[in-house]
Design brief:
2-enoyl-CoA Hydratase, Chain A, domain 1; 10 strands; 253 residues; four-stranded mixed β-sheet; binds coenzyme A
């Protein structure tokens, strides 16, 4: 991986705020194993570093993330130990203890959608699209979306998104409770960072306790993630999944 695919920033104008930026625009911010690894390390480091009060996730203009790199899915299907980085990031997301914000512009596919279920405030632009084509790829929901999705949006909307693979507009995602606010492209970074600044200025212990009280217990999230990962790993090896990945690779031929 080029180091530049995940940028870790401590913006001087925003003390206490750390930014994790996905930056692989030529592949629509598809996430490779190395990128997951770096993001997992970034979360661990941010949790430990007392100078970091709030973490913000951004993508690039027009693209938050197109989800897992489908070439990597094929590699993991051949060699399951290769899933370590992906799994580590997902598990770290589930137990991350500081306020986590995201600013979404454009494509938010697969984990590009589900990671927002772990965020405390997500801002998204009107052109954003939230979509999890898990079953179309012969896969199953991940990142505890099968637990957190229905809890935040009710069964039918969660089924539409995570089982039927129906895409949500930014407004639909806001109305469903997946995200907090829709803001213009011009404002996205400033508004998200302002929200991060406001949180970074609050008494950190009171904020940490409040956040913990509001969230599902980490053990429940962790247990569901392992359950999903078990099914996910089995499906990844299935002929129907391989066929779906090949179809994507061959779609331009
Ligand atoms: N994995 C690997 N490569 C991906 C990718 C992914 N998830 N998403 C996009 N890319 C690559 C494309 O292969 C293409 O590479 P190329 O220029 O070398 O051919 C490049 O990014 C641009 O994508 P392209 O498909 O040409 O752009 P588009 O605007 O027509 O479509 C998407 C963008 C994201 C809608 C489409 O690429 C897509 O459906 N990607 C797969 C999304 C997915 O299923 N993710 C997994 C969810 S679990």
């Amino acid at each position: 991986m080029s180091e530049d695919h995940i940028l870790i920033e401590n913006p001087e104008a925003h003390p206490g705020v750390r930014v994790i930026r996905m930056n692989r625009p030529d592949k629509k911010n598809a996430l490779t194993r190395a990128m997951y690894d770096r993001m997992a390390d970034a979360l661990i480091d941010a949790d430990k570093d007392s100078n970091v009060r709030v973490v913000v996730m951004f993508g690039v203009p027009g693209c938050f993330s197109s989800g897992n790199d489908l070439n990597d899915f094929m590699a993991i299907a051949m060699e399951p130990s290769q899933a370590k980085g992906v799994n580590r990031f997902i598990l770290e997301l589930g137990k991350f203890a500081k306020p986590l914000l995201s600013g979404v512009d454009g494509l938010a596919i697969g984990i590009g959608t589900t990671m927002n279920l772990h965020c405390d405030l997500t801002f998204a632009t009107p052109r954003s699209q939230f979509r999890t084509p898990f079953t179309d790829l012969a896969l199953v929901p991940e990142a505890a979306s099968s637990l957190l999705g229905p809890a935040s949006m009710g069964h039918q909307r969660a089924f539409a998104m995570f089982a039927a693979g129906i895409g949500f507009t930014a407004e639909e995602a806001r109305d469903a409770g997946l995200i907090w606010k829709v803001v213009s492209e011009d404002e996205l970074e400033a508004v998200t960072l302002k929200a991060a600044d406001d949180l970074a200025a609050k008494p950190p212990n009171a904020l940490a306790i409040s956040r913990k009280l509001l969230k599902k217990p980490v053990d429940d999230i962790n247990a569901r993630m392992h359950d999903e990962l078990h099914h996910f790993a089995n499906q990844l090896k299935s002929p129907e999944a391989m066929q779906a990945f090949q179809a994507f690779m061959n779609r331009k031929k």
